[in-house]
Amino acid sequence: MRNLDQNTITDAVLARFADTPDPRLKTIITSLVRHLHDFAREVELTEAEWEKGIDFLTRVGHITDDKRHEFILLSDVLGLSMLTVAMNQDKPRGCTEATVFGPFHVEGAPHYELGDDIANGAAGTPCVVRGTVRGLDGEPVANARMDVWQSDHDGLYDVQHPDLDHAQARGILHTDDQGRFHFRSVVAVPYQIPHDGPVGQLLDATNRHPWRPAHLHFKIDAPGYESLITHVFRNGDPWLDSDAVFGVRESLVADWVEQDDGTYLLEFDFVLNRKD
Description:
Blueprint: H1 9-16, H2 23-43, H3 47-63, H4 70-77, H5 80-88, E1 126-135, E2 145-149, E3 170-174, E4 180-186, E5 191-192, H6 198-205, E6 211-212, E7 215-221, E8 228-234, E9 253-254, E10 256-258, E11 264-267, E12 270-272
Parallel strand pairs: 1-11, 1-12, 8-9
Antiparallel strand pairs: 1-4, 2-3, 2-7, 5-6, 7-8, 10-11
């Protein structure tokens, strides 16, 4: 097809994808093309602006590596990560709510026994975390795999320390036969998401802050139950109502209670949804 203009090019592009054999891919790509073209027309996108957009995405790709996932960060600050979670993790009332995965999960975290210190040298005020993992009907979920990770007192994850040669403030544990768990770590603190790259420049340009409220990450898996990816947020944190990545849910806010010896205790129970 020749002599296309701004009003006819969209249909021409969609026609080129008409024979896509995978029906789901066809749905996604055709909708993407349609919305991208409508967006460009709506804002009257200039060539110079689109070149800047391409440059921005290129820099996001260049700064991304196995320790820094700038594309996840971009998805998070645009609210797209939390939108997909909300659409796909609509669990029955009573189940623990899901939230964003975040860019700092690492495969192959060390395994610990219940009661161990997963901080493993991370700076911070000592705390104990304990609770249960149960199903929606109240049944204990034995041997549930709990992948836990958090930042240290400086607001940094272990992968953000270039000279650190071992995992800190992250680990994998399993619940006991009554669905109970307990481990030691350090008190969660608020921190700024990495903002020395293109995503940070976007936040600056739009007058947004990079702060996340204090939290612990959990990924919980057990046979017969849906996987749960969530946080537990620290009550009283000043950034709870303006989380840079829109991840806070009221049901996930809990108290870190100071003990007589100056340490802290977090108690939180997780409720999983059965598959099917």
